[in-house]
């Protein structure tokens, strides 16, 4: 009930602050460390993560899993503090535009983003794992910020918010841009190679699965028996 009333976790209305945690779960380090340091029924001391301040209760220990409840509280910056941060970033942007400081050096000196601070602020594409973004597949909010930028241009300062409710001011530099064009082996060699490799992997997996399906049997209930399967699971072909 306290979590529903007071927690700033966006998911609290659906889960009342409840999570099942494993060692390899995609939670921040501080959250997992707290979960695995508690005994059943024990409540942690307040601890800090990038999302704010937490307290956690261990509901149940199930082997390598922990069922926990937590309450998250995020410090609220007043309008004056928010304006001060925005004004500082506007000043840093002007310094970069006037060539008083390189963008990468400004990132290292001023940025508070732990994920990109030491890499010069480079954003990684979560889908491909590299630094290239396809405009047609880009997050709509990010697209709106970079679609009109030319190579080497810096965006205006803007307010951004994570799904967890964290607010921050940002600027973006468009390092390079490749306009739409017919694929070229010289210009697009790496991308063509990746596509060819992915196609080869897909074909190999499909061949392997088709061979295994021949002597692998599954129970298909009546509800799905009339469906058309991509693979020959029903052995009807």
Write structural notes for this entry:
32% of the residues lie in helices and 15% in strands. It is of the alpha+beta class and 237 residues long. Among the domains are: 2-73, no CATH class; 79-170, Chitinase A, domain 3, CATH 3.10.50.40. It has a 4-stranded antiparallel sheet. Strands 5-6 form a two-stranded antiparallel sheet.
Q: Note the main sheet.
A: 4 strands, antiparallel
Number of helices: 7
Supply the CATH class of the domain at 79-170. Answer: Alpha Beta
H/E series:
HHEHEEEHHHEEH
Keywords:
6 strands, four-stranded antiparallel beta sheet, 237 residues, Chitinase A, domain 3, two-stranded antiparallel sheet, 7 helices, alpha+beta
Short description:
The chain is of the alpha+beta class and 237 residues long. The protein has seven helices and six strands. The chain has helices spanning 2-6, 12-15, 29-35, 79-97, 103-110, 140-146, 189-213, and strands at residues 18-21, 47-49, 52-62, 65-73, 158-161, 167-170.
């Amino acid at each position: 009930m306290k979590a529903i009333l007071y927690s700033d976790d966006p998911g609290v209305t659906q889960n009342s602050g409840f999570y099942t945690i494993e060692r390899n779960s995609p939670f921040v380090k501080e959250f997992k460390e707290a979960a695995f340091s508690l005994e059943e029924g024990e409540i942690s001391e307040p601890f800090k993560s990038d999302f704010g301040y937490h307290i956690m209760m261990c509901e149940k220990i199930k082997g390598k899993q922990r069922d926990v409840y937590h309450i998250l509280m995020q410090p609220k910056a007043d309008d004056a503090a928010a304006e001060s941060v925005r004004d500082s970033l506007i000043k840093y942007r002007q310094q970069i535009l006037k060539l008083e400081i390189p963008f990468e050096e400004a990132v290292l000196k001023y940025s508070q983003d732990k994920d990109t601070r030491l890499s010069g602020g480079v954003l990684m594409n979560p889908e491909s794992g590299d630094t290239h973004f396809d405009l047609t597949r880009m997050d709509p909010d990010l697209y709106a910020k970079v679609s009109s930028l030319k190579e080497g241009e810096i965006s205006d300062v803007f307010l951004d918010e994570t799904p967890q409710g964290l607010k921050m001011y940002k600027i973006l530099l468009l390092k390079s841009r490749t306009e739409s064009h017919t694929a070229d082996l010289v210009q697009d060699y790496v991308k063509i190679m990746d596509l060819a490799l992915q196609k080869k992997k897909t074909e190999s997996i499909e061949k392997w699965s088709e061979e295994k399906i021949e002597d692998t049997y599954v129970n298909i209930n009546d509800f799905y028996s009339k469906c058309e399967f991509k693979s020959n699971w029903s052995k009807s072909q």
